[in-house]
Amino acid sequence: MDEPGSCLARMRETAPLVHNITNFVAMAVMANVLIAAGASPAMVHAREEAAEFATLAHALTVNIGTADPDWGTAMEEAAAVMNGAGRPWVFDPVGVGATRFRQALSERLIALRPTVIRGNASEIRALAGLEGAARGVDAGDSVEAAAEAARLLACRTGGIVAVSGPVDYVTDGKEAYRVANGHPLMPRVTALGCALNGVIAAFCVGQPALAATTAALAFYGLAGETAARSARGRAASSRPSSMPWQR
Amino acid sequence: MDEPGSCLARMRETAPLVHNITNFVAMAVMANVLIAAGASPAMVHAREEAAEFATLAHALTVNIGTADPDWGTAMEEAAAVMNGAGRPWVFDPVGVGATRFRQALSERLIALRPTVIRGNASEIRALAGLEGAARGVDAGDSVEAAAEAARLLACRTGGIVAVSGPVDYVTDGKEAYRVANGHPLMPRVTALGCALNGVIAAFCVGQPALAATTAALAFYGLAGETAARSARGRAASSRPSSMPWQR
Amino acid sequence: MDEPGSCLARMRETAPLVHNITNFVAMAVMANVLIAAGASPAMVHAREEAAEFATLAHALTVNIGTADPDWGTAMEEAAAVMNGAGRPWVFDPVGVGATRFRQALSERLIALRPTVIRGNASEIRALAGLEGAARGVDAGDSVEAAAEAARLLACRTGGIVAVSGPVDYVTDGKEAYRVANGHPLMPRVTALGCALNGVIAAFCVGQPALAATTAALAFYGLAGETAARSARGRAASSRPSSMPWQR
To answer: Residues that bind substrate, according to the entry (chains A, B, C) (predicted)?
Structure first.
C-alpha cells in the first residue's frame, strides 16, 4: 500500500469538489475541515438540485444524522449519479439503530453499494444485522466487536467498511488495516466523525478506495494529535461520548 | 436545596442522552456544550422519527427559533412521549412575540406543560400574556419586570419558569431563586442561551426540577465566567444584544 | 464619500435588526459576526413567518446556498416587504451557475431589484449572463474579469453590485470603488463571505448604499487583517478555495 503521505499529496493536487448531504450539526465543521485538508466542499441537499449538482462533484458524502424523507431521496439520486460516473461516495449511517426511518433509509443506501461505509462500532454492527437492539448509542461496543460485521458488510456491498474508534478498522472484506492515530479529545468535539467522511471521500478520488480510506484515517488522526497538543480546554469527563455525532 | 455541585455530579453519573429539537444556529454549539458538561446530545427533528427517538432519550429540549409546521408537530409528539414517560423537557419560546406562527406554536407547547420554560424577560412576559407588543426583541425588559410573569406562567403550567438575564430568576410559582453568575460576554456569543436549555434538561434527569434548574444556571454561569477569563476578543459594543438567540 | 469609520459609527448607533435567510453552513458564523459588528441578527426562513418577521427588521439578507422551493418563496416575500418599506436587502447568488434551480431562483430575486448583490467573480458573471458555463466554481475568474458584468447588472437592477475577491469591486453602474483590504486566510474559513452580507445590510440601513457597501467591505477586510495577526493555524494549501461558501 502507498504511503499515506502520497495519498494526501495526490488528493491536494486534485483539490476535489466534495458534495456533502450531511447533518446540520456537522455542516460548518465539515466545510472547514475539507478546506483545511485541501479539498473544496459544497453542501447541497435540496431534491430540486442535488442530483444535478452531483454531476459537477468529484465525490459525495451522505450522512443520515438529520435526514428527512426528501433528503433521503436526494441522497439516493446523488449516489446514483456518482455510481453512473464511477466516482466515489461515502455513507455514514448515523444512529442507524435508533429509529425505523434510519434503518429503512440506510438499507436503501446500502443497496446502492457505497464506495465506503464509515460508522462507529454499534452502527456497523446494526447495519450488518448483527445486533437488533443497537439504538444509536455505541457505549458498549468496541471496534474489535464490529470487525466481523465490517467484513460481512464489505462482502455484501463490494465496498470498503471503516469502523471508527480508538483504533480504527478498515476492510474490503478480504484485507484489513488498523489505524491507531487520533486523540481522546477528538470524540469530545462534535461533528469530527462526520467531517472525516469528507476527507475519506476526497482521498478516494482517483485512488484505490482501501488504501485511500486507510490513509485518510491516518491523516485525520495525525491532524487530531497535532491539534490536541495546543488544545487548552479540558474534557469534562473521562467517559467516552456515546452518540454518533459526538465521535 | 442541594448544592449545585451535587446536582452536577449526579448529572455526570447519569450522562443523560438529551434529545434536542433546536434551531439551526444553535445545534453545533449546543452539542459541544452538552458533551463538555458531561451529557450526550442528539439533534433529531424529522416528524418521521422524532417521537420514536424520544423514547430513547432521558430528556428533551424544544426551541422554536427556526421551527416550521413539521418541526412543530415533531416537538409536540416528542414532548408527549416525555410526559408519558415522566421524563423532563425544556421549552424555549425564542422570539415568541415576533410572529403569529411562534405564538400559536408556543401556546400548543405550553398546553403540554413543559417541565421547564426558559426564556428572556420579553419572551416570558409575552408568553404570560402580559405584553402584547413584545416582538422578539428584549431590549427594554429587565428580568425583574418578568418575575411576576414567570410566577403566573409557572402556576399555569405547574412547571418551572426560568428568566435569563444578568441575574437569572427561577420559580415554581411558589418559591423563587436568583442566580447572579455569568459574564457580560455571554450574550455576545450566539446560541449560548439556547445551549443552556440542554444543560437544564440534563440536570433535571432524576432530580427535582426547581433545584436542578437553579443548579444548571449556576453551573453554566460559572462556566461562562471561567471561559471569559481567557477570552481574548473584545465585544464590539457595550450594548446588550437584543435578539433571543444572541443571549 | 464618507469615511468608512463614520458609516460604522452610524450603523452601531442604529444597532439594526438584520433578518437573514441564509444557508445552514453560515448561520452561526453570521450571527456571531453581526453581534461582533454591533448589529442584531435573526435567522428566520419558514414561509409561515418570514414575511411577517421582515416587517420588524431594519434590513434583510437572502442567500441561496442551501435554499429549497419553500425558502425561495420566503425570500421573495420577505424581499417584497423590504421593498415596500424602503428598507435595504442584500442578495448573495451562491453557486448560481451550478444548477437550474439556483438560476431560476436568482432570476426571480433579481427581478425584485436587490439593494445590493454580492458575489464572487464567477457568480456575478453568471448572473449577468456573460458566462453560461460557470457552475458555482470561481477558480478561473478574476474580480477584474467580472467588473463589466457588475456594471451591467447594476444598471439592470438599479442597485449596487459588489464582487468579492483579493481586491473587491463595488459599483452602482456609474461610479466604482475598489477595496484592497482583507487577508488570504479569509477565504480559508467557511462562511466568512456569507457573513459579510449581513454586515453590508447593516451598514446600508439609513445610509447611501454605494458608500455603505464600500465601507462595509473595508471594515470587514480590516477585521480580517486584525484577526489574521493572531491566527495560529496554517492554511493547508496556497490554492485559493473555489466554492462560494468558502470565500
So the answer is: 43, 191
CATH topology of domain B4-228+241-246: UDP-N-acetylmuramoyl-L-alanine:D-glutamate ligase (3.40.1190)
Task: Say how far apart CA C168 and CA B151 lie, in whole Å.
Answer: 54
Q: What is the pLDDT along chain C (247 residues), one digit of tens a residue?
A: 667 789 999 999 999 999 999 999 999 999 999 999 999 999 999 999 999 999 999 999 999 999 999 999 999 999 999 999 999 999 999 999 999 999 999 999 999 999 999 999 999 999 998 764 444 444 457 888 899 999 999 999 999 999 999 999 999 999 999 999 999 999 999 999 999 999 999 999 999 999 999 999 999 999 999 999 988 876 534 444 444 333 3
Distance CA B216, CA B17 (A): 16
**CB-CB neighbours of A237 under 10 Å:** 16
Interchain proximity C243–A42, CB inside 8 Å: yes
- Cβ B115 vs Cβ B90: under 8 Å: yes
* Closest CA in chain B for residue C43: B66
Tell which phi-psi region holds residue C206, choosing left (phi > 0), alpha (psi between -120 and 50) or beta: left
Its ipTM equals 0.92
Q: Which residues pair with residue B168 across a beta bridge?
A: B179
Q: By the 8 A CB rule, do C77 and C47 touch?
A: yes
* C241 CB within 8 Å of a chain A CB: yes
- Cβ–Cβ < 8 Å for A178, A167: yes
CATH superfamily of A4-119+185-227: Ribokinase (3.40.1190.20)
Residue ranges covered by each domain of chain C: 4-226
Quickly tell me which residue has 399555569 as its cell. Answer: B156
Q: Report whether B237 contacts C12 (CB < 8 A).
A: yes
